[in-house]
Structures are given as structure tokens and as C-alpha cells.
Amino acid sequence: MDSSLFLSQLLNGVQLGVLLFLLSSGLTLIFGIMNFINLAHGSLYMVGAFIGAAAFNASGSFVFAVMAGMLASAAVGLLLEHGIARPLYRYDHLYQVLATFGLMMFFNELAIVIFGSRPYYAGIPDYLSGAVTVFGSPYPVYRILIIVVGILVAVGAWYLIQKTRFGMLIRAGASNSNMVSVLGVNIDLLKKLLFMLGAALAGLAGALAGPILSVQSGMGEPVLILALVVIVVGGIGSIRGALVAAMIIAIIDTLGRAYMPQLLAPFMVPTSANAVGPALASMLIYILMALVLAFKPDGILAPRKR
Amino acid sequence: MNALALSTKGLVKRFGGLKATDDVSLDIRPGELHAIIGPNGAGKTTLINLLSGELSADEGAVLIGSTAVSGLRVQGRVGQGLLRSYQITSVFDDFSVLENVCLAAMRHRGIRFAVWKPLTAYEDVVEKAKTVIAQCGLEDVQNDTVSSLAYGQRRQLEIAMALAAEPRILLLDEPMAGMSSVEGGAAIELLRSLKGRYTIVLVEHDMNAVFSLADRISVLVYGKVVATGSIEEIRNHPDVKRAYLGDDADA
Amino acid sequence: MMDRLKNGVWLIPLLFLVLACIPFIADALGEPFYITFFARVLIYALAACALNIILGFAGLVSFGHALFIGLGCYAVGILGFFDISNGWLQLLAALAVCALVALFVGTVCLRTSGIGFIMITLAFAQMFYFLMVSMTMFGGDDGLNIFMPSDFGFFELSGSREVYWATWAVLLLLTIFLFRFRKSPFGLVLRATHLNPRRVNALGYSVFKVQLAAYILSGMITGVAGFLLANLTAFASPSYMSWHMSGELIVMLVIGGLGTVTGPIFGSIIYLVMEEVFKGITQHWMLLMGPLIVIIAMLTRNGVDFMKLLRINTNPSEGVDRADETKPAAAGDAS
After folding, report:
1. Which pTM does this prediction carry?
2. Are B60 and B10 in contact (CB under 8 A)?
3. How far does the CA of residue C195 sit from the closest CA of chain B (Å)?
4. Which alpha helices (DSSP H) does chain B contain, by range?
5. Residue B169 belongs to what H/E stretch?
6. Would you call B241 exposed, middle or buried from its count of C-beta atoms within 10 A (0-12, 13-18, 19+)?
7. Domains of chain A
8. In chain B, what residues touch C326 (CB-CB under 8 Å)?
9. CA distance B207 to B250
10. C28 inside 8 A of chain B by CB
11. pLDDT per residue over C137-177, tens digit each?
């Protein structure tokens, strides 16, 4: 096994893990605390990607672009919370699924109407487009940036959750949401802030991912499904779980796709290995999910519910 | 007699740091009506849940007859004849009274995966259900949807469900809760008619019912059995009087 | 006579009579497209009725039910790829595969509740979606053309008309079955698992086993819908397993009324007709359908039934117990 190739694949896995973490941390909080299924979370990611790309194309400033992406997603998230989520909190998940499914359909089509159905160009500034040498082999600077951002967000999230009042309310809500409202906290405001936070994180992920994945209608769905798997494996409501699960799943997925045919080679004819390899690799994380759920139906780090 | 003995040995259940059930050993004889009383928060419902299998104990054992059932979950214990009623009515609101009771009564018939004939067309099941419905005074409403019943009737249905499932041991968790005195009186007579045929564990606050029905009484305070004995013994027990200061001790 | 009208038992034969007229009407109008369109409607209705068994009766929101449509399609496609066009074999394969997959997926999914169940069913459907996309031997993303119709010996599913009649017949049988199933012991226990699972366990039944059995049954019937779809379109594709498909099935079910007998059929007709209308208005019909689905969700969240609003009784009762007729407090599908 070529070690420098392995290293760069590993880093790719970490970078994917970061994006997944950004997306799933917001999702797990919304599911865990507000008990609300939001299939339109992928659309929030898409909004961040499109707005971020458009903002960069218009201004040339990457920082501005990312901020614009985040803000746009947060704004859409606020509208979503007020108009769709709020009327449905108390109702069966079925209707939440249905409503956000309809929203997803709408956003996807809207993206096509505004931006067309071909991938939209998302550039990166020159100062981020080079490569650095990591342990002897070149690795794109931009991807390193994503990893760094991810670490910062993870630290920031830890601080927010563990050290601030807002975070305390979130933790309390995760184990007993009814209690929190009884304590006289402005629950409506808390929920809106939480929703916007999740949306902003999704927008950040989208704005960052744009240049390396393609920005187009429907880009949110595959990532959303992965994020759902991350949450289920990590434990609904747990940010730590989302982080751990996101890393594991992203790394296994990336390495699996890269090395599966080679792993299968000793066991079967090369043509079979090349055919079965990708298939098996794509199923790998779902098999992992099934295994985790077989032993821990609530996920590996689920917060204990009263 | 179909009734079985029910016993526990050193049953312990903790919730975090709290011992909701503290070393409870009970010996309930076949066919007896054994009441469990105690102040609020004594852990009576927890004990019932441990007996029925909805909760598993941290230590100790539960035995039905001479069979250890601690490893059995709810369905397994139901299979041994252990049926319960709930303190908060737990029935099928969208179905009719007859359908509710038939669902209980069909337990032994092995038809739970039958898909063609309506349940209400299985004559033996319906007959059994109607007998129990009559016993519980619900004949007038047997075709009505449960959601339209009065509260007292729902409590009666709660008992009817447990009865129709052909129990050998009945765990009744505050069956009289919220009943008017008239309804309560009828319920007491119903329970009296069941005495001897089944082993009955009765958790109740209504001392009227307890003292007119119980063969023996156990008193639960903070998860511990403080006393077990006949009605007279419990009435005069100093610990019991103390635990009930300000409660129904004058009954 | 009025009693029987009120009971709505007449609805089933009437509905199927009307549906049986469609091929003749299409011929008279010279529009064979309608046969193809309504064949698709009935196939979706079949899948929606199957989904109703677990979603309507047991309240299990499966967001991956299109998986079984895909499995049924590929049973035809893959066997066809290997030159096996015997309808019986293909059907058997579809049923067997769906049963096995449902057993596996159900066993994993039914141990989690609520949100978990929804997401895991979706995830498993996606898994098979990606599996078929990566199976380039069977067409991958482009799908698999099917050159031979399913051959049952005395007839072949060689055209839209044949598929229409076959689907009509299967749907009729299923509807009659569901009409009986709803009040059968299994049907009642299954519905009870949604109303009060704790009580079901306390009566000695296993909620898990009951729901798993229903899930397998539902999956197999949905597989038959997929089998028919493959014959209608002569095509098997991963997109038949997409969550779009799963979502649309749920919408149809909700429009028609959860847990009712004929509701899913009405729901499919309404949804697919609306889709055609929107497609006629604009290429970007999803801009219209999306918000409409949101509105439907908002309107039905209380369990409101469009069919009741139209005064159509989608739950014909046999008239033995009148729990739903006589009591004003009872909802229409109470018995």
C-alpha cells in the first residue's frame, strides 16, 4: 500500500468528516431537542453553497462569500422554523416529514429556475488554491482549510454547549425538553436560535463544500442521507456522537471506496473485484449502521433520556 | 383452583441514586387477595411494574408459582397467567368496547395472525368477552367506541381487559382511582366476586376497598415493606400509623 | 337499503367498475395514453395500499418503501437479463427477495422508534439505491432495459392494456383482502400497536413480531407493484427506489386517508392527476407541487380526511357493529 496515497485518502476522509459533522451537528440538535424531522436541512446546505458561490463570483472575497452563505442559510432557516416547523412541533413526525419533503422539492426546483440545471461554478481565491506538503506528499491547501475550520467549529461547539447558558439550556432540552419550558425560558426564542444555528452550520458546510463538490440542484440529498446515518449511529441529540460518528463514517467511506477493489483482490477475479468493489464500498456505511443499531439501537453516544 | 402463588425475593430497583424498591420480599398465596398500601411515592407502581415485567429488577427474583420469571419479559409472564391493569387507563380508544375485550380474550386461541375472518365473528372469543363485559357492567356500551365512554366506564374496561385474558394472577394498580363512590362500590363488589378464583395483588389508596376485600395487607414505605399481616394487625401496627400520619389511617 | 348505502360497501364494486371502464373510454377517445397513465396510477395505488398496512394501520412512517418497488422491478430486469422471462419465476423471485429484505430491514428498524425508524428505513432504501447504481452490469444509473415481457403461460404482460388489467385484478383482490384484514385478529392487533403498544405487550402479544410480520407482508405486496411497473415501462432503474418515490407514496396515502381501505386508491388518482395537470402548466411543476405538499401536510396534520370532506366513506363496514355509524363522537374510521 502506497503510504502517501493512503495519507491523502485519510485526510480526504477527515475533511469529509468535517463537512458531515457541520451538517449533522445542527441536525442532531434539531431532532434531539425539538423532536423535529427536517428533511429540508439538505436544502439549507444547498442554499449556503449557491449563495456562497454566487457571492464569491460577485465579490472575489472568500470570507465574504462564506459569511454570505451562512447568513443566507440562517435566514432561510428562520423562515422555515417560523412558517413550517413551529406549526408542526406537536404533531406526528409523519407530517413533518411530508412538509419538509415538499419544501425540499420546492427548493430543488427553485435552484434550477434561478441557476439552471448545470453545475454552478464555485471558485476559490488564489491564496487557497495551492498545495502544501504533508508528511512528504502534496495536499490541497483548501482541504486543509476545511479541516481547520472543522476543528474550530468543534471547539466552538464544545465551548458553546458546555460553558454558556445557551448551551446549558440545550443540554437540558436534550434530556428533558418539557422541563426546560416549565423553567420559564423563552422556548420560542430558544428554538429559533437553535434552528438558525443548525442552518448556519449547514450553510457553512455548503459554502465550504461548493468548490470541491459540485454546486447544483439536489446536492443536498446525498449529504443529508449521510448526515442521517451519522446521527443515527452517533445518537440523536448528541454532538459528541455526531463528531465521532461523522469521522468514523467519513473515513470508512473514503478509504473503502479507495481500497475496496484491492482488499477484495486476493479473494476474487480482478474483473469481479472491480465490479463488486464499488458496490460494496457504497454499502459499507449502511452495513456499519445496521451493525451499530443491532447492538446499540439508540446510537453509540446517545444522551440518556428520562 | 387456577390461581398461582406469586413471590419475590429481595427485589431491588434503583433509579440513579434512588432506591425505588428496597429489598422487597413478598409471599402472596394462591387465591388470596393481597393489598399493597402505602403513602404516595412509596414505590407501589414501580413494584407492580417489576412484577409484571415492564421493569427489570437490579437485584432479586420474581417467582410465579415455583418458576423463576425474572428473565422473562412482559409477554412471557403473561403467558404464565400474570395480567395487570393500569393506574392510568390504557386501552384502545379507537376500537369498540367489544373489540377491546375480544383482543384480550383471544390470547389463548392462537389466532393473532389470522387475517380473514373478523375478530368479532369468532364465537368462542366473543362469548368469553361478553361474559366479562357483563361481569363488569358494560353490556349497555359494548358496541360503543371507547373514546366516548365515561371515565368510570373506562376504569371498568381496564379491569375487564385483564379479566378477559384468562389470568391466574391479577395485578391491579389503583383500579378505583378517580371513581365516584357509587362506581367504587360496584367495583368493590366485582372484585369480591373474583376472590378465591384468582390470586389478586391490589394496590389501592381507597381504604374502604382495602379493608373490605383484603385477606392480607403489605405496607410499602419508601420502597421497603414495613409490615405484612391481616387487616387487624395492620390497623394496629405502630409503624403503619406513623407512616400514614395525616393520611387515611382513620379508616 | 339506505343502511347499506351508508355503510359504503357498495363503494368497492362501484370504484372498480369505474376503473374497469377506463380502457374502453380510452379506446373510444382514441387516446391509448390514458391506459398507460392509469395503469401507472393503479400500480402506485397498489404500492400505496401496501404502505397503508404499516403506515396507516401501525403508524410506522417508512420513508424507504420505494425500495420494494425497485426490488420488484429488478427481479424482472435481472432475470430478464439472464433470459428468464417466465412470469411465475420472476414473481416468485420478487416476492422472495422482498420478504428477505423486509425481514432484515424490519428487524433492524423496528427496534428503534419514531424518528429513528423513519431515518433508518430511508437509509436502507438509499443503500440499495447506491448498490444498483454501482452495479454497472445491470445498467447502473442509466437503468436496465427489459426486452421480454413477463410470460405466465396463458398470458403475457406485453402491453399497457395487459398490465392495466393485471394491476386492476391484483388491486381488487388486495382491496377485498384489506377490507377483511382491518377487522381480523391480526389487523386489530396491528392497529392496536399504534394506539397503545404498551397495552398490546401487556396482553401477551409481541409488538415487534406483529409489526415485523406486517412489514414483510407490506414489502412483498409492494414488490408486486414493482413487478408490474417493470412490465409497464419495460425498464428497471435505481430511480424507482429513490426517496422521491417513497415520499410520493406517503403523500398519496395522506391525501386519501391513513388507515382506510379505499383511501390510498383515491389518493393515488388525485396525486397523479394533479401531477399531470401541473406538468401541463410548467416544466418546473415541482415549484407548484412542493408547496402543495406542504399545504397538504398542514391541513391533514390533525388526521383530517379529504375523503370524508367529499362524503366518501373509504372504510366500508360490514354493518355488524355500528360503533362508527351511531356515535357522533366517533371518527369515521373508528371501527
Report:
1. 0.89
2. yes
3. 6
4. 44-52, 74-79, 97-105, 123-135, 151-164, 181-194, 207-213, 231-235, 238-243
5. strand B169-173
6. middle
7. 3-295 (1.10.3470)
8. 143
9. 9
10. no
11. 888 888 898 888 888 888 888 889 999 999 999 999 999 99
